[in-house]
Design a protein that fits this description.
Blueprint: E1 3-4, H1 15-26, E2 31-34, H2 42-49, E3 57-63, E4 69-75, E5 78-80, H3 82-89, E6 95-96, H4 99-106, E7 124-127, E8 136-139, E9 146-149, H5 151-158, E10 161-163, E11 166-168
Parallel strand pairs: 4-7, 7-10
Antiparallel strand pairs: 1-2, 2-9, 3-4, 3-6, 5-11, 8-9
Length: 170
């Protein structure tokens, strides 16, 4: 059985607790879930949670030399086409952000960054495939937790745009 955040006590400075507070303040249908099995890969996470692999999403932060950031939310089983993300965002020279930048800009560690609730403001692209799912699961503030959230809430809370910026992973 999976536990949800309401069944576990947290310190106020815990990133996952900040996410819980954000979710409550936003009044959305979302929750933090603690997988009760392996979740290191998309396939493991999907099997543990009992969902399709297309429902597991990743939140990837990119940065360019000018310090401009872009977040892409995409299915974990797809590869982000950086050139398409550059074209859609209009931000040239995007590269993966360093773990330090991810923590500074989002307030969450790499591997636990959720699709919503970040410290910084930056443009967000939600890949078109994410919007085809009724509910998705992404980083939950820590590497051992996930958030169950509606794609429409990811879009709305980030004032994001929808675009096709992924391709099948090879």
């Amino acid at each position: 059985m999976q536990k949800t955040m309401s069944t576990v006590e947290r310190a106020d400075d815990d990133p996952a607790q900040r996410l819980v507070t954000y979710i409550a303040d936003a009044e959305i249908d979302a929750e933090i879930v603690f997988p009760d099995g392996p979740s290191s890969t998309v396939a493991e996470a999907a099997a543990t949670l009992g969902v399709k692999t297309t429902q597991i999403v990743k939140s990837i932060l990119f940065e360019n030399r000018n310090g401009e950031c872009l977040l892409v939310v995409a299915s974990g089983e797809r590869r982000i086409n950086r050139q398409r993300a550059i074209e859609v965002s209009g931000l040239p020279g995007l590269q993966l952000a360093s773990p330090e930048t991810v923590l500074k800009m989002s307030g969450f560690p790499v591997g636990g960054m959720p699709p919503v609730g970040h410290h910084g403001r930056f443009p967000v692209i939600v890949d078109r495939g994410v919007m085809e799912e009724p509910v998705v699961f992404g980083g939950g503030g820590r590497t051992d937790e996930v958030v169950r959230i509606l794609p429409a809430d990811i879009l709305r809370l980030n004032d994001a745009c929808i675009a096709a910026v992924t391709e099948a992973a090879s």
